Amino acid sequence: MKMKERNASASSAEKQAAGIAAAKLVEDGMVIGLGTGSTTAFAIAEVGRRVREENLDVLAVVTSYQAEMLAIEAGVPLTSLAEHPVLDLAIDGADQVDAKMNVIKGGGAAHTREKVVANSAIRFIVVADDSKMSEELNHFVPVEVLPYARELVKKQMIELGGVPVMRMASRKDGPVITDNGNVIMDVEFGTIDDPAELYQRLSACVGVVEHGIFLNTDEVYVGRKGGAVEII
Ligand code: 5RP
């Protein structure tokens, strides 16, 4: 196996350990939120296994078409926020988590619905492999943008000290389009000294649908090398 492949499968084992551990929190009768991405995919598969093999009685709200497809494939019964506006638990991945459990999300362009689900949940659990853990946030911030307002948003991001880059599917296919029909700007802010302040400033920008800073994480399940899971 080449070095790159070995690293990918190692991080995949850590993601799997975190996802499975978080799925054990799901109890009979719960209504849960299911996030998007490769780490949450392991949690969805495990919830599905428990539904099939342990008759776990659960309903789930998904955060993306990707999560919907995985949940249906795994046999997890679905519902909506319109029917169940309060979720007992939500499980989702992260692009970066700092020492105070501030999180950057949106690598999968799903952070708008993920934030709605996280804020509808009584308990919000983040699952991550240990490469996502950092003392401070210094990852770019994904920002979902109303396409009509993209130039105005670009200007506001620069005024905030950011360097915005439109996320492209490919040169041929053009920009990434979210499940909500919007585009994504990945905005580099360097080290984010005050995530709460940047959160408020980004939320106040006209034309921003939602940004990827999350401040309401209750626990982080971190998959460490060797398969152990640390709960923070
Ligand atoms: C999607 C997300 C994902 O949860 C985040 O990008 C982490 O993904 P992965 O578990 O594949 O590393 O925020 O919008």
Automatic annotation (TrEMBL):
Top EC category: isomerase
Reactions the enzyme catalyzes: aldehydo-D-ribose 5-phosphate = D-ribulose 5-phosphate
Gene Ontology CC: one annotated term: cytosol
Enzyme Commission number(s) from the entry: 5.3.1.6
Sorted UniProt keywords: Isomerase
Active site (UniProt): 114 (proton acceptor)
Biochemical pathway: Carbohydrate degradation; pentose phosphate pathway; D-ribose 5-phosphate from D-ribulose 5-phosphate (non-oxidative stage): step 1/1
Gene Ontology molecular function, alphabetical: ribose-5-phosphate isomerase activity
Residues involved in substrate binding: 36-39, 92-95, 105-108, 132
Keyword Chaperone: no
Superkingdom to which the source organism belongs: Archaea
Entry keyword annotation includes 4Fe-4S: no
InterPro entries with a match to the protein in the record: NagB/RpiA_transferase-like, Ribose5P_isomerase_typA_subgr, Ribose5P_isomerase_type_A
One GO term (biological process): pentose-phosphate shunt, non-oxidative branch
UniProt xrefs under Gene3D superfamilies: 3.30.70.260, 3.40.50.1360
Role of this protein: Catalyzes the reversible conversion of ribose-5-phosphate to ribulose 5-phosphate.
Complex formation: Homodimer.
Annotated family: Belongs to the ribose 5-phosphate isomerase family.
Protein name: Ribose-5-phosphate isomerase A
Taxonomic placement: Archaea, Methanobacteriati, Methanobacteriota, Stenosarchaea group, Methanomicrobia
